[in-house]
């Protein structure tokens, strides 16, 4: 049965651009007076902006849909339309079942009211009956872990307590359809874990979930289907893995290879010039993007224009923040003029997920760098994990799963 | 289990709007209760402010109009008793008007994050004013005892005029609240209206005094005049006659403004969030 059917939804916004007209007080006073007596619209230009354009798809009951897309793709607009906060310019949505949307935690909290009062206020705003809230009150309080601060105004709460209380209330809603937006972007990792755990519970009880997040690991772990939006249009809707793959490739600005045909325009100097530098992933199990399981091969070819030079090749791997994860080099060898090839293999289950950049350095006589090619290529390692309910960011620069931690029992006493 | 199917599309986003309002009546109470609770948080005097405000207003009125303008000379009963009904209605009206007209913008965080029939928000601002009016009523009774004045049976009709005053505030405030979403000029106008409204309504003087002026019919276009006249009749009985010439225009104003504002509100409520 269809829980939600979306037919040709479009949403239009009119943007008006005003030029910055006045630079100082004198100009703004005279400009303002002038404006009073003339038509105001002269310096205003209007632009039509389609936040969503002809989006249609159906959501079956019990589906868990992840909505992905870069900023400004229309995800939030779609959620706002579905949760009836704003209406579509055209098109129609049919919703079947009691729906609750959670676009923010702690909506409508009043800073001056106590935690207790806010539980009732927020619950009512989210559509719970007072009876329901009373019944679940103790559970909400213990889920949020704010027993001690129940009668403190929420303005004195730490931001963590505030968010926890907000989520605790929302988590005890019992809708048939739940719409969640980026809630997991806030709070510490322990809280995120709790949120995801709760959402898993909700989804396993056969309710429909719509979930927008930038955390593709969470979407992968939680959803069975995904919708990929780009610039207001639906690009792909279907099985979560495929959609995420399309989404990842569309956002990756990564360059797996740089190649030059002749030494004339290749980067370098009169001693060495780079011909080719590339990353070759060896995909496993039919996966289409690089993830933590994928072994990588890095190939570098360069032209050596020196007669019998004593050269070695040094490769640097940086992470997104610019820290060097490792630097490895080849043995120095004497080469005559010609094309020289180097190769480095990064094993599977070694790098953590994240974005990486590779720089290459060619060194003469083991001490004299003759050419350094910075950020030559880059690639993105996606996350992949199994056998865990934890979807937060895995810490660490590397993730060498093959270095195991062993545990065994030493003694029978407790 | 109740089945509820909702159709979302441009224009009307809900088929059974009023049924939904009814279903969410708890929210109405909760929002009203919130405003009441928040009102005197972190004040030393707390609810006492509910007494101080009308009392001070009435005292200043008695001083300015009764003593300085010497209006009390024509009054056969203590001037305080003449002023209080006016103050009750005026404070209730002006407070409701400011609250309602600011209700959508003031609750912008709710409007932009959760769905419920928006009309509940302006509606719920009734409760705060009602509480204050109740306190002011008690104050009136205290003064009655002090002056040995016995109100007539009409006092039981007083709630009707409170409701009428509220509806007058609701009609104009609701319209203003919609405009305020797009044009914040309204937020500038309302305090101003509240300020000079004192003088063009019979708050501190009886409308008997202006009855014979040629501009009296225009004066009566102000719905508060009708509500105050009515309230005065309720509380003072024989000392203030029932005034049909202000009552009828008020009824017309209330009916038209409330119906029109609700229509206008419904027409615009689904696009509030785009302008907030």
Walkthrough of the structure:
The complex is a heterodimer of chains A (414) and B (276). Chain A has 414 residues and is an alpha+beta fold. Chain A is 23% helix and 36% strand. The longest helix of chain A has 16 residues, at 189-204. Chain B has helices at 17-23, 25-39, 48-68, 79-106, 108-111, 120-124, 126-147, 158-182, 185-200, 216-219, 223-236, 244-268, 272-275; one strand at 5-9. With 276 residues, chain B is mainly alpha-helical. The mean pLDDT of chain B is 84. The A-B interface holds A 13, 80-99, 101, 103-104, 107-108, 110, 112-113, 117, 120-121, 124-127, 129-130, 153 and B 3-11, 13-14, 24, 26-27, 30-31, 34, 37-38, 41-42, 107, 109-116, 270-271, 273-274. Strand 4 (90-96) of chain A pairs antiparallel with strand 1 of chain B, so a sheet runs across the interface.
Key features?
heterodimer; A: 414 residues; alpha+beta; six-stranded mixed β-sheet; five-stranded antiparallel β-sheet; B: 276 residues; mainly alpha; 13 helices
Task: List the SSEs and their pairings.
The complex is a heterodimer of chains A (414) and B (276).
Chain A: E1 2-18, H1 25-37, E2 44-60, E3 64-68, H2 75-82, E4 90-96, E5 99-102, H3 115-125, H4 130-144, H5 159-171, E6 177-181, H6 189-204, E7 208-212, H7 216-222, E8 225-230, E9 233-239, H8 240-251, E10 257-259, E11 272-281, E12 296-304, E13 309-319, E14 324-329, E15 333-335, E16 338-346, E17 354-364, E18 368-381
Helix pairs in contact in A: 3-4, 3-5, 4-5
Chain B: E1 5-9, H1 17-23, H2 25-39, H3 48-68, H4 79-106, H5 108-111, H6 120-124, H7 126-147, H8 158-182, H9 185-200, H10 216-219, H11 223-236, H12 244-268, H13 272-275
């Amino acid at each position: 049965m269809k829980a939600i059917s979306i037919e040709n939804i479009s949403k239009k916004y009119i943007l008006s651009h005003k030029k910055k007209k006045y630079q100082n007080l004198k100009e703004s006073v005279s400009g303002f007076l002038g404006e009073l007596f003339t038509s105001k619209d002269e310096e205003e230009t209007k632009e039509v902006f389609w936040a969503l354009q002809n989006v249609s798809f159906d959501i079956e009951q019990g589906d868990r849909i992840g909505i992905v897309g870069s900023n400004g793709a229309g995800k939030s607009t779609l959620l706002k339309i579905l949760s009836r906060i704003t209406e579509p310019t055209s098109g129609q949505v049919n919703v079947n079942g009691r729906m609750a949307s959670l676009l923010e935690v702690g909506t409508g909290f009043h800073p001056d009211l106590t935690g207790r009062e806010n539980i009732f206020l927020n619950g009512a705003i989210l559509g719970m009956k007072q009876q329901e809230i009373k019944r679940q009150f103790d559970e909400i309080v213990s889920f949020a872990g704010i027993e001690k601060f129940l009668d403190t105004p929420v303005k004195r709460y730490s931001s963590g307590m505030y968010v926890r209380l907000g989520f605790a209330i929302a988590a005890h809603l019992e809708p048939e359809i739940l719409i969640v937006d980026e809630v997991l972007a806030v709070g510490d990792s322990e809280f995120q874990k709790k949120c995801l755990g709760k959402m898993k519970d909700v989804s396993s009880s056969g309710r429909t979930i719509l979930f927008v997040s930038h955390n593709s690991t969470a979407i992968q772990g939680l959803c069975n289907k995904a919708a990929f939006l780009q610039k207001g249009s639906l690009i792909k809707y279907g099985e979560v893995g495929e959609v995420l793959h399309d989404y990842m490739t569309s956002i990756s600005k990564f360059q797996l290879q740089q190649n030059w045909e002749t030494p004339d325009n290749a980067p370098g100097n009169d001693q060495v010039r780079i011909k080719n530098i590339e990353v070759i992933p060896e995909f496993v199990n039919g996966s289409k993007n690089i993830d933590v399981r994928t072994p990588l091969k890095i190939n570098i070819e360069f032209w050596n224009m020196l007669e019998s030079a004593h050269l070695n090749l040094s490769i640097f791997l940086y992470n997104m923040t610019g820290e060097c994860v490792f630097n490895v080099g080849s043995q120095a060898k004497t080469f005559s003029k010609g094309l020289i090839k180097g190769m480095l293999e990064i094993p599977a289950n070694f790098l953590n997920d994240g974005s990486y950049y590779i720089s290459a350095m060619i060194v003469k006589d083991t001490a004299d760098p003759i050419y350094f090619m910075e950020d030559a290529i880059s690639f993105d390692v996606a996350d992949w994990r199994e056998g865990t309910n934890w979807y937060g960011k895995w810490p660490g620069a590397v993730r060498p799963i093959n270095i195991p931690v062993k545990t065994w029992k030493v003694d029978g006493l407790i | 289990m109740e089945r509820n199917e909702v159709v979302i599309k441009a224009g009307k986003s809900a088929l059974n709007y009023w049924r939904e309002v009814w279903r969410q009546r708890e929210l109405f109470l909760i929002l009203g209760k919130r405003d009441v609770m928040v009102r005197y948080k972190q004040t030393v005097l707390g609810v006492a402010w509910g007494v101080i405000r009308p009392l001070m207003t009435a005292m200043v009125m008695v001083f300015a109009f009764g003593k300085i303008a010497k209006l009390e000379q024509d009054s056969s009963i203590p001037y305080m008793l003449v002023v209080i009904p006016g103050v009750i209605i005026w404070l209730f009206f002006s407070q409701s008007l400011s609250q309602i007209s600011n209700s959508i913008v003031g609750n912008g965080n709710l409007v932009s994050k959760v769905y419920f029939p928006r009309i509940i928000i302006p509606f719920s601002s009734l409760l705060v004013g009602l509480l204050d009016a109740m306190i002011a009523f008690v104050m009136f009774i205290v003064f009655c005892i002090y002056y040995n004045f016995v109100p007539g049976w009409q006092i039981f009709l007083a709630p009707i005029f409170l409701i009428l005053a509220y509806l007058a505030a609701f009609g104009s405030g609701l319209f203003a609240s919609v405009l305020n979403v797009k044009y914040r000029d309204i937020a500038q106008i309302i305090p101003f209206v509240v300020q000079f409204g004192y003088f063009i309504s019979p708050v501190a003087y009886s409308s008997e005094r202006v009855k014979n002026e040629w501009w009296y019919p225009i004066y009566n276009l102000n719905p508060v005049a009708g509500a105050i006249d009515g309230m005065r009749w309720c509380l003072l009985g024989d000392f203030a006659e029932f005034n049909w010439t202000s009552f009828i225009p008020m009824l017309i104003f209330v009916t038209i403004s409330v119906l029109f504002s609700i229509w206008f509100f419904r027409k615009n409520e689904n696009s509030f969030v785009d302008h907030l």
